[in-house]
Structure formats: structure tokens, C-alpha cells
Design a protein that fits this description.
about 375 residues; alpha+beta; 3-stranded antiparallel β-sheet; 17 helices
């Protein structure tokens, strides 16, 4: 709470969230929507170092609305916070291990505005259980208000809070099985039952947003038993000074086009491929001979366009490939041999690879390289 007071006195965008609130689990089958999670973060920011006290806290609706003219969403968010249950490990009256379930908001008041009114306030009190959790927290996460409001995935926001809590520890990692992962991120048991879906829909999207908006980046490693993923380990790495400045600059830019800027690196590779691989062949200047395989063919089969100019995946080695695919493997492959990743990609895609080209191919290859590195770790 002293940290929260100090950060609030600076009047900046940073605020402290108690570690106990970051670690609190959702009751099975429940989770907060993105808008409700943002509202909770703003409540903690507003309460500051007084969040543990049994007093009412106040906030302007304009600070929540962010450009929305109506207040219906604020009502929905408040009601969602009231009915969502959280769980923590506790002891029973007999001293045995138990699970305690509770809500965070005890009561709230929302001013009723006349039609056309521009202002209004909400008022709320945290429950005694929430206040005790806040008061007894020995750790905290320093969050950035612009980052919290900028996330478009609730899973990215949850993972961001987990990383902010651990980034300055000696071991800045989080590891858990599938049950713990779902509880931490608030993923309902009936969705993304297949880990490949969870990786694509949750982890990869969350990583992309965090790498763009947070003061750190996130990587993960998949621990397997046979072919099944049984545990996931996240590692959070602080950004260096140039990347920190780029993140601050991104916070100042309009949210419109943020996704396009996030995917700009992939799109630039597609453009480079299209420039490097024209649809019509042209005479090439003489080049020095390259090593050949035992069969006499070149070891590097460059990505060849189809007759319509589409970019296809190379059929040979990426060692001498000058298109985007070797660059992607070098950037996202975690240091693994490019041909090793390429062979695994061809095996997984099979006949589908023949029909894949252009932007979809580049995005598919990028995602595979990232997943390969995350699954295998560092060579």
C-alpha cells in the first residue's frame, strides 16, 4: 500500500496491484470479461493505498467510458463484478486445507443521470475478504494504465498482470499444469479443449499484445508427456531501453491501426517476398556457383512463384534461401536449425502446404516457428 501511495503521488500512468489479487483464481466456470477486468483495474488504481480500508471509493464515469456516450455498459460491468466469484486457498475452522470463495465488490452506487447529462460518478466498497487479501499481500505488480486499457484480449490482460508481478524476481517464470493455467487465465473448461486451439487462440494472441504494449516480453515452453502437453512454463523478460521507448510511443498512438502495426513485421516480409519473387521471370546476372548436393541439384530451392505470382514454401534447404522464410525462421525459431524446423513444418502441413501461399503462408510459417521454439526451448 505504501507503493500504491507513492505511485499515485507521481500522478503518472503506473499503479500497483496487490499480488494476492493477481494470483486470485476464478471459481470454475466463471471469469471476467475484458471490460469488467479493465473496470476492476481502474478501481484498484483509484483506490490506491486506501484500497484495504473500509471506506467508499469514487470514480467519474467519464474515466471508465472512454468515448462511449451511453452508460449501459458501466451498469453491466458493475453487475458482472458483483456476481463473479473468486477462490483462494485457506484453512477451515479445524485447521484443514480449504478453498474460500468470495466476491470483490460489496456494494456499489451509480448516479442516475438525466438525459443529456455529461457527467456522473460511481461509488463502491470492497468486501472484507477483498480488503484482507489486499492488506496481507506481500508482493505487488506495477501496471501501466495505458497498457491495461489497450489490451483487446482479456487473456492478454491476465497474462500481463502475471508477468508484471514476476518480472523483477530472480526467477521471473510461472509454471503450472492445464488446470492451473485455465484457472489463472480464466479459461472456461468447455472452450479450447484442444491445446493447439488454446495455443493459437489464447497464448499466441496474448503474446503478440503483451510484446507490443507491456514493458516486458513473454515466451512459453510446453512440457509434454508423450504428445500431450501437461504443463506450460512462461518466462517474462524485461525490454531493453530502445524497446521500452517504442512501447511508450505505441501507448501514445491511436488504437486504430494498432493490430496492423503489430503485424507489420509479417506483412513487410510478405511484401519483401513479392518484390523478391516477381511473377514474370527476368534475366539474372551471372552469380558465383553455389555448393551442390550429391545429386547435382542446388541445396537451396528458392521460393518459386506460381504462374499467378503467388509465393509458395521452398521445397529444399533454407540454408541459402534469400526469401522471407529463412528470415522468419532465424527471427522466431529460437536458434534451432532452419531446415529442422522446415522439415517439421512440411511434415505437419502435408498436402495442405501446396494450397497455401502469400500472406496466409507467411503467417502460418511464423506461427509454426514460434510454437516450435516455445515447445522445444533453446537448442
Amino acid at each position: 500500500m505504501r507503493v500504491a501511495h507513492a505511485l499515485r503521488a507521481r500522478e503518472g500512468d503506473e499503479f500497483a496491484k496487490p499480488g494476492n489479487l493477481v494470483e486470485v483464481r476464478f471459481v470454475k466456470g466463471q471469469s471476467l470479461s475484458l471490460t469488467a477486468a479493465r473496470l476492476l483495474a481502474l478501481m484498484i488504481l483509484t483506490a490506491g493505498g486506501d484500497a484495504w480500508q473500509p471506506i467508499a471509493h469514487k470514480m467519474r464515469k467519464a474515466d471508465i467510458r472512454r468515448g462511449h456516450k451511453g452508460n449501459e455498459r458501466i451498469t453491466d460491468m458493475l453487475e458482472e463484478l458483483h456476481r463473479t466469484l473468486f477462490a483462494v486457498d485457506d484453512l477451515s475452522w479445524r485447521g484443514r486445507k480449504a478453498t474460500k470463495r468470495f466476491s470483490l465488490i460489496q456494494s456499489s452506487r451509480e448516479e442516475l443521470e438525466e438525459e443529456g447529462a455529461e457527467s456522473g460518478w460511481i461509488e463502491w466498497e470492497f468486501t472484507p475478504d477483498a480488503r484482507r487479501l489486499i492488506r496481507e499481500s506481500e508482493t505487488y505488480a506495477v501496471l501501466n494504465r495505458q497498457a491495461v486499457l489497450g489490451f483487446r484480449s482479456v487473456y492478454a490482460l491476465r497474462l500481463y498482470e502475471m508477468g508484471a508481478l514476476r518480472i523483477h524476481r530472480r526467477q521471473s517464470t510461472w509454471r503450472g499444469d492445464m488446470t492451473a493455467l485455465r484457472a489463472a487465465l480464466g479459461i472456461a473448461p468447455e472452450i479450447y479443449s484442444d491445446f493447439a486451439q488454446l495455443r493459437r487462440k489464447v497464448l499466441e494472441r496474448a503474446k503478440a499484445e503483451i510484446d507490443q504494449l507491456a514493458h516486458f516480453t513473454v515466451e512459453w515452453r510446453e512440457i509434454r508427456r508423450g504428445r500431450a502437453v501437461i504443463e506450460v512454463e512462461f518466462q517474462f523478460v524485461a525490454k531493453d531501453a530502445p524497446d521500452q521507448l517504442a512501447t511508450v510511443a505505441e501507448h501514445e498512438r491511436h488504437t486504430v491501426g494498432r493490430r496492423a502495426r503489430r503485424e507489420d513485421a509479417v506483412e513487410s516480409l510478405v511484401e519483401a517476398a513479392e518484390v523478391a519473387l516477381p511473377s514474370a521471370p527476368s534475366p539474372a546476372p551471372a552469380r558465383t556457383a553455389r555448393p551442390t548436393t550429391s545429386s547435382g541439384s542446388k541445396p537451396a530451392a528458392a521460393a518459386k512463384p506460381a504462374t499467378n505470382g503467388a509465393v509458395h514454401f521452398p521445397t529444399g534447404s533454407l540454408m541459402y534461401e534469400r526469401g522471407p522464410f529463412a528470415d522468419i525462421a532465424r527471427q522466431h525459431g529460437g536458434g534451432w536449425d532452419k531446415d529442422l524446423i522446415a522439415n517439421a513444418y512440411r511434415e505437419q502441413m502435408g498436402d495442405r502446404l501446396r494450397a497455401l501461399n502469400g500472406t496466409k503462408l507467411v503467417k502460418s510459417w511464423t506461427g509454426f516457428c514460434q510454437a516450435y521454439a516455445a515447445r522445444r526451448g533453446r537448442p
